[in-house]
Amino acid sequence: MGIKIGIVGLGNQGILHVEALKSIPGAELVAVADVNTERAKSVAYEYKIPRYYSSARELCEYPEVEAVIVATPDHLHLEPVLEALKAGKHVLVEKPMAARSGEAELMRAESRRRDLILMVNFENRFNPPFAYVKELLERGDIGSPLYAYIRLSDTVYVPRRMLPWASQTSVAHFLMSHTADLACWYFGRRVREVYAASVSKVLSDLGTPDAVGALLKFEGGGFATLESGWVLPESSPSVFDFKLELVGSEGAVHVNTEWEGLAIASKGKLVYPHMAKLYRLRGTVTGFLREVDRHFVECVSGRATPLIKVEEGVENTRIIEAIVRSSLEGRAIKL
Prior knowledge:
Layout: E1 3-8, H1 12-21, E2 27-33, H2 37-46, E3 51-53, H3 56-61, E4 67-70, H4 78-86, E5 90-94, H5 101-113, E6 118-121, H6 128-139, E7 145-154, H7 157-162, H8 171-187, E8 191-199, E9 211-218, E10 223-229, E11 240-248, E12 251-256, E13 264-266, E14 269-271, E15 279-281, E16 284-286, H9 288-300, H10 310-329, E17 333-334
Parallel strand pairs: 1-2, 1-4, 2-3, 4-5, 5-6, 7-10
Antiparallel strand pairs: 7-11, 8-9, 8-17, 9-10, 11-12, 13-14, 15-16
């Protein structure tokens, strides 16, 4: 028998976690929960999961659950995370850790008080090309990081059709939480100042900027420029555009995951399929999201130490909060 896990939130990301966990030796998915009870019931039936619930509280009251994955919308992480921690469950929560730094602090305090694992799913640390950049830095192959440019943008399909809760988050929270984490991971130092600008026109009715640009200045020197938008045309061959350029003191590296080496032209369309995150190969699930979940299971079982510290999730939330504030106030924000 493996570590018994429950999942709260069965949207796009939650279902990917279901797929991943069902393929991991040492993991046993025993319960799912969603505010849409019929969806929870349907997922439980389809994936042969013993129990389903309509709330995090109900799931966490099930004594067999040892760990919980929280995959609710960005602005709805606090309640299920605290419910799980107070029930004595280890937690993996989707990024961003929270909508506000105060909420992230509450989560961290609760995990420390109960000596429980609280890990944020910064999944791109397990994404092979981005993980390899970290290896290059650790080996000294490109020297120490001087500056970086990271772009992660989505087509307008994401805020308009994929996320019914897009008006409750922002392009900074949804996308820059990824890129800010990569920047901090690579530089290995604290961000001391943030300056950001935004533009709002296409998505003004949702209350979220169309795009945000941010400059992060690191302690001891070095900077990262982040760029994220939500208004790329739906005719784009990929739903996202994700690129990195990092220049070190002894070299440089470029990453482009918009195109994973496969392009398909058919029926008047060109598409770039994405398989690196989660892909079923001859019945076996593989991909970097599966590696995140596998690592979490290893940590809960005591066979590994979390590679993502709870403090990094809190700091990421502080940075995103500063980016949003700077873009609104038109001035640099010191951290």
